[in-house]
Design brief:
By secondary structure, the protein is α/β, with parallel strands linked by helices. About 35% of the residues lie in helices and about 15% in strands. The structure holds nicotinamide-adenine-dinucleotide. Nicotinamide-adenine-dinucleotide (NAD) binds near residues 50, 90, 98, 113 and 131. Nicotinamide-adenine-dinucleotide (NAD) binds near residues 24, 28, 91 and 192.
């Protein structure tokens, strides 16, 4: 088995490079993961339907001989042929306006899509990683949130298609694991940001940056006293790969996120400061089921993977702002559509 200097496994027992399927590989996180896997010697098959992403995200990858795009909806049986060693399942719209646009498809993606990908992993003897979310904790009563906390989720609200879909996907994963059918890993991802976030998808980081760059008031939902913690994308991707490759004594989900917690109002000031803007803030009503506090306990990731974030909030934001500046966003001022304002949330 070949390993990179950093310990990442890059080939199977026969010396051939690992073949990794990345479902949702054209998305924000998925495209960075595809890049990092190729950089560490994997061959990547990106499975995506582009329901919540743009092909622009993978443009630089498409010329790589180690990258293949398989355009498909994971809700349908996947006719993928050939060897597969790793399956990363990141397929699912992740921002509230996107996942609420077709809530039934969102739930189906998490449940039927995950089932299809688990079956693919089982058929090929591949290891499987599920991208779960801090949203499985709902509006938490425990702080910070550790993996043993079973959550406080509303199963009938407008976020349920995502939160409950992800909870069902976790249940499926651990059943496959308990039955000895697939070696499964579940990452509970907390708010992650970086280049390639979509400017109009209603997440807090992209909203604030785009508003700051275009001189618009920054939208704060509620008082802005609610807290969030933000993980830079390179840290998160490193965590996903470490979790996939770890020899785990532990059967259960692992939180991945940055425990550096900020009040939303304070976060808006940091963004405005880095952009060099003097934007006013505009307060709007809190969306339904918006969590008041969100901060991961990452003790388990530290212990099992030796992983923790290394990119500071200011450094990560500088990179992200630079990327937004270099795209056309700054010249096309953004104002979320009314339906997006309702759905967009400080929760992401
Ligand atoms: N970014 C975050 O802060 C965050 C936080 C928690 C969890 N996550 C999870 O990480 C994963 C990736 O999130 P992201 O931020 O990159 O979102 P994204 O919307 O940018 O990426 C999701 C990708 O999945 C694809 N997809 C969605 N449904 C599909 C389907 N049925 N068939 C095929 N492709 C499909 C989309 O086209 C997109 O390319 C998601 O599963 C999300 O739940 C992300």
């Amino acid at each position: 088995m070949a390993r990179m200097q950093n310990g990442t496994v890059i080939s199977n027992g026969n010396g051939a490079p690992y073949v990794s399927v990345v479902a949702g590989g054209a998305g924000f996180l998925g495209s960075h993961l595809c890049e990092a896997l190729i950089a560490s010697g994997h061959q990547v098959i990106c499975v995506d339907s582009f329901v919540s992403s743009s092909r622009r995200n993978i443009r630089s990858l498409e010329s790589s001989p180690d990258f293949r795009l398989f355009e498909a909806d994971v809700c349908e049986p996947l006719g993928l042929r050939g060897r597969v060693d790793r399956v990363y399942n990141l397929a699912c719209a992740a921002s509230p306006p996107r996942y609420q646009a077709d809530p039934i498809h969102t739930m189906t993606t998490s449940v039927v899509g995950s089932l299809n990908l688990l079956r693919l992993a089982e058929a090929r003897g591949a290891r499987y990683l599920q991208a779960s979310t801090s949203e499985v904790y709902g509006d938490p009563e425990q702080h910070p949130q550790s993996e043993s906390y079973s959550g406080h989720v509303n199963c009938t609200g407008p976020r349920a298609c995502y939160d409950e879909g992800k909870r069902a996907a976790e249940a499926l994963c651990f059943d496959f694991l308990r039955l000895g059918r697939v070696d499964v890993r579940v990452a509970r991802i907390f708010n992650t940001y970086g280049p390639r976030m979509q400017p109009d998808d209603g997440r807090i980081v992209s909203n604030f940056i785009v508003q700051a760059l275009s001189g618009k008031p920054m939208t704060i939902y509620g008082t802005g006293e609610q807290t969030r913690s933000f993980c830079y994308v390179s840290d998160l991707v490193r965590g996903l790969m470490a979790l996939m490759e770890a020899r785990l004594p532990h059967e259960g989900p692992v939180n991945l996120g940055n425990p550096d917690e900020h009040r939303v109002l304070e976060f808006a000031r940091i963004v405005a400061d880095l952009v060099g803007a003097r934007n006013a803030v505009r307060h709007e009503a809190l969306p339904t089921d918006d969590p008041r506090r969100r901060c991961p306990d990452i003790s388990l990731a530290r212990e099992l993977l030796g992983w923790e974030p290394t990119v500071s909030l200011r450094d990560g934001l500088r990179e992200t702002i630079e990327w937004f500046r270099s795209t056309e966003v700054a010249s096309h001022p953004h104002d979320p559509a009314p339906e997006q304002r309702m759905a967009a949330t400080a929760g992401k």
